[in-house]
Design brief:
By secondary structure, the protein is α+β, with helices and mostly antiparallel strands. The N and C termini lie far apart (53 Å). It has 5 helices and 8 strands; from the N terminus they run ααββββββαββαα. The chain is 39% helix and 27% strand. It has a single domain, classed as Jelly Rolls (Sandwich), CATH 2.60.120. α4 packs across α5 (126-154). The strands form 2 sheets. A 4-stranded antiparallel beta sheet has the order 1-8-3-6. It has helices spanning 5-15, 24-30, 90-93, 115-124, 126-154; strands spanning 34-39, 44-46, 54-60, 63-68, 75-81, 86-87, 101-104, 108-114.
Length: 155
């Protein structure tokens, strides 16, 4: 028997390691603010220049981000992200358009947090919103640290 989409979504939220710093009560409160979505291999989550209104927490699969170059039709891969990664954080911070294209490299499942939902969370429960933001910042800091280490290894 195939689990219902609602059950799959709840399990995705429960299993996502990113939320392990939160209590079960926190996770239960956060669930209403997240949506679940899936993408097939080759499908874009968004395209460079699209409006930016959500962040994606990858729970399954890998997503590649690409940036257009000055050579028409040529793109450079700027990142490949797998489970436990979050992408598109700029969406929560500004109304700027997407700076990159994000494409599923394989079937992917993601938790979506829309800017409007994040704003509502912070109005209803600022303490929980603050803990979530700290977790997101920590995750991005670890990604930046890994980038520094990779860069240093080249030289």
């Amino acid at each position: 028997m195939v689990p219902k989409l609602e059950d799959q979504c709840t399990q995705m939220k429960r299993d996502f390691r990113f939320f392990h710093f939160l209590t079960e009560e926190d996770i239960a409160q956060l669930q209403e603010f997240f949506k679940c979505s899936s993408y097939t291999a080759g499908e874009d989550l968004w395209r460079e220049g699209d409006s930016s209104y959500f962040i994606a927490f990858i729970t399954k699969g890998r997503v590649e981000t690409k940036k257009e170059t000055e050579f028409k039709g040529k793109q450079v891969v700027v990142g490949v992200y797998g489970p436990e990664s979050l992408i598109g954080i700029v969406s929560l911070l500004s109304k700027e358009t997407r700076p990159v294209t994000a494409t599923a490299l394989e079937p992917c499942c993601v938790l979506i947090l829309e800017q409007q939902s994040f704003d509502t969370l912070n109005q209803k429960n600022p303490e929980l919103g603050n803990r979530l933001m700290k977790g997101m910042l920590f995750s991005l800091s670890m990604r930046l640290k890994q980038s520094y280490e990779r860069l240093a290894a080249i030289f």
